[in-house]
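Extended Data, record Phosphopantetheine adenylyltransferase
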Amino acid sequence: MEDKVCPTKAEIAIYPGSFDPVTNGHLDIIERASKIFPQLVVAVLSNPQKTPLFTLEERKEMLQKSTEHLPNVQIETFSGLLVRFARQKGCRIIIRGLRAISDYEYETQIAVINRKMAPEIETLFLPTSSEYSYLNSTVVKEIARFGGCLAKLVPPFVEKKLKEKFQT
């Protein structure tokens, strides 16, 4: 029996988030998604309803430095509807990381809404590696605020930026 190679269409995937700051959990998803898709756009959200610790440009810079070893990853910023940004990029796949069941419930609601607005765009859930299942940006900022050890939570460049913000 002859092996058949399935033809593939090059896909651009988008991994959106606020990344305030980027954590090793985010990087886990980015690295794994970059192995699946020929091009991955990490989209940093500018949300006027939130007051981030880092500016949009600082978050973009931290992601660029943290992903410079991944040639098929590009970092961009956006505001407004994710599906609109995805369409502008010619993207049909949104990557969302999941840590726990509570993430699944929330992310499923967002995926359903996005699908109603843009039926051609699919959401793909990637579970975070178990070593990062507890990790989020809020926890990282809290640890940084009180001078805790960040070494296994964020890349070294991000750790330095956090220490500068909190002067620890």
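Summary. Strands lie at 12-17, 39-45, 73-78, 93-98, 122-127.
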